[in-house]
Design a protein that fits this description.
Order of helices and strands: HHEEEHEEEEHEHEEEH
Shape: globular
Number of helices: 6
Radius of gyration: 20 Å
Structural class: alpha/beta
Distance between the termini: 19 Å
């Protein structure tokens, strides 16, 4: 609810009472409770959205807005189980720039990425993982996918394992699934958890050594999406090992827990 509120503020839409909207959604669920799936793996998808409704034509903050709720029963995101997919490593296009709108849940962050999906599919990939330069001419750093945050499980020379995800620097969308992954892994205290910049060079180095243990994305719809490899447009693949000396795969454990 806070993210929805701050996103509306960023677009200069009128404010609303967060607690009141939450109570309205609870009432809506009671009215339509017969639609809530009971089978394992099924759920009720809820998505609030807002748009300006001022009766005026011009470029100015609206004085009126409408909030609506999309509500739909949905089946398992992975009906055949957690099958790792390939993701295109996009080193040309940028999803969001610093001081922009990348940290807000707005349509303008998603629509432009749809044009890149055919390119990803040409390389046998389901989505694109975007990168960004840390200054003019610097090396490329991982940002996020078009519709999800991304995590990397690395193994270092001393045997220490580190779970890395890009920090909330203004280009990354915060989310409850991302927060849940971070909180669970910190609670389990089995791997080091870091929110830091990670470069394509560092990922390539780990992949070549076989110490890129796991890659996975996370988001509201998929919860956890395992990634088999990051595919560069040259055809090079930064392959995840998808095995763990500690036993079970981390992404599987997270998926079951979430």
């Amino acid at each position: 609810m806070r993210r929805f509120h701050t996103s509306m503020q960023r677009l200069a839409l009128p404010s609303f009472d967060q607690d009141e909207l939450l109570e309205c959604i609870k009432k809506l669920l009671l009215v339509d409770k017969s639609w809530i799936p009971k089978a394992e793996g099924f759920s009720m998808y809820l998505r609030p959205f807002a748009f300006g409704t001022s009766a005026a034509l011009g470029v100015a903050p609206p004085s009126d807005a409408e909030i609506s709720i999309i509500m739909s029963p949905v089946g398992p995101y992975f009906p055949e189980g957690l099958v790792p997919v390939n993701v295109l490593l996009d080193e040309v296009n940028v999803r969001a720039f610093p001081q922009g709108t990348g940290q807000y849940k707005i349509g303008g962050n998603y629509a432009p990425t749809l044009a890149h999906l055919p390119v990803a599919m040409e390389h046998g990939c389901k989505q694109s993982l975007y990168t960004i330069e840390d200054g003019p001419g610097s090396e490329k750093y991982v940002a996020e996918c078009g519709a999800m945050n991304v995590f990397f499980l690395l193994e270092h020379g001393n045997g220490e394992q580190e779970l890395v995800t890009p920090p909330l620097d203004g280009t990354i969308l915060p989310g409850v699934t991302r927060d849940s992954v971070l909180s669970l892994c910190r609670e389990w205290n089995e791997v080091k958890v870091s929110e830091r910049m990670i470069s394509v060079r560092e990922l390539k180095d780990h992949a070549s050594k076989g110490t890129l243990l796991e890659i996975f994305g996370c988001g509201t719809a998929c919860a956890i999406m395992p990634i088999k490899a990051l595919v560069r447009t040259s055809g090079e693949k930064l392959q995840a090992r998808l095995s763990n000396t500690n036993g079970s795969l981390l992404y599987e454990r997270l998926f079951k827990t979430l």
